């Protein structure tokens, strides 16, 4: 079976608001106040450590990796307590997922968010059961851009890893698809939209309404 595998943060959903809230909670606990704002949405979608580094950089500080790792654990705890208040799906995202399933594709999520948090978020949003599989950053010994999480997501959803594509929004997604030898589709509507064309994916996606037709044209 052919498969379409989706990244989560910045691809299916804009999770930046809740992620920045968790990072700011860490900064407040350190007595630094809220360091991240709406202008940092693209950074948020690169993950917790990226947000921590960005916040400290605004203060001219460069903590070592041990300190970042310590704060990252606090960030994950804060995020787990409130991860869906501001998060929303991009227009047409779940409609496209359902259309792909009707068209005979397996669908899965492959994210670098820890699996438990990704599973909790999709459950809170009421769509966990819509996907045949979910692979997170810690599901396997390796994470994107290693190709194995993408391949395993396709397999667990009942698809053929050689007949899949990855829908994403970062250079990590582009490199993951390239390493797996399959097409990448990068979205042009997330916080990092302006950077997508330079990554030269097989397809740039302007709206999820177009995704079923785009995937059909790939001849997976």
* Strand adjacency order, main sheet: 5-4-1-6-7-8
The best one-word shape is: elongated
**Total domains, how many?**
2
> Helix segment count?
9
Q: Explain this structure to me?
A:
- The chain is of the alpha/beta class and 220 residues long.
- The chain folds into two domains: 143 residues, Rossmann fold; 66 residues.
- Helices cover 42% and strands 12% of the residues.
- β6, α8 and β7 form a beta-alpha-beta unit.
- The longest helix is centred in the N-terminal third of the chain and has 17 residues.
- The model has no long low-confidence stretch (mean pLDDT 95).
Short description:
This protein is an alpha/beta fold and 220 residues long. The chain has 9 helices and 8 strands.
Which key phrases capture this entry?
9 helices; 12% strand; Rossmann fold; 220 residues; elongated; six-stranded parallel sheet; two-stranded antiparallel sheet; alpha/beta
List the helices and strands and how they pair.
Blueprint lengths: L2 E4 L6 E2 L1 H14 L11 H4 L3 H11 L6 H17 L6 E2 L3 H10 L3 E5 L4 H10 L9 E2 L12 H9 L7 E5 L2 H10 L3 E4 L15 E3 L5 H7 L3
Helix pairs in contact: 1-3, 1-4, 3-4
